[in-house]
Design goal:
alpha/beta; Ubiquitin-like (UB roll); DNA polymerase, domain 1; 3-stranded mixed sheet; two-stranded antiparallel ribbon; 33% helix
């Protein structure tokens, strides 16, 4: 009988220790639910974009980093009737500090020439320039992504494969 009481006491003590362990452990928890910071939610930032030239309301615009050039042009109340829109990629995502310049049609001896904007032109548009094939067009786009927008057309000579003679051949056909 003494053995049964001892076993019962030891069992009771074990149950009591386990109960206290779990009770004390749970009493430290609060009712506040913390946000799970391990998730990789995308935080949308704002970008400041400047629009110049042939738009109805040139100026600075604050837009989401997910905005497109078309969205900014819409905020600028659209293009004027003199705008050369052929070299503007409206689907391109904006970047903070981006400057969008909308040029007028360039008229030479009564003929309208559409200049290729080396800051906004896609590969297929760049390939329309004489001497610019797919490889050089992709090199221009890659250089632009890596180094930012061209400030002057002469910076195009910094792109691998664009020689001085090729630049001279296309300089009258390009713009920034």
């Amino acid at each position: 009988m003494k053995k049964k009481i001892t076993i019962a006491c030891i069992g009771g003590a074990i149950v009591l220790v386990l109960f206290l362990f779990f009770f004390i452990k749970d009493s430290g928890k609060s009712d506040v639910i913390e946000e799970d910071h391990s998730r990789s939610d995308t935080f949308l930032e704002n970008c400041v974009v400047e629009v110049k030239g042939e738009v109805n309301r040139p100026g600075l615009y604050i837009v989401s980093s997910e905005a497109r050039i078309g969205d900014v042009i819409e905020l600028a109340m659209g293009f004027t009737e003199n705008a050369d829109t052929s070299n503007i990629n409206l689907a391109l995502k904006v970047e903070d500090g981006m400057q969008i310049i909308v040029y007028t049609y360039y008229v030479d001896t009564g003929e309208v020439k559409n200049l290729v904007n080396i800051n906004t032109a896609a590969v297929d548009e760049l390939m329309k320039l004489p001497g610019i094939g797919e490889v050089k067009a992709k090199a221009i786009v890659e250089y632009r992504k890596k180094n930012g927008w061209f400030n002057d057309i002469s910076e195009l000579k910094n792109v691998s494969g664009i020689s001085e003679s090729l630049f001279e051949q296309i300089k009258e056909l390009i713009t920034v």
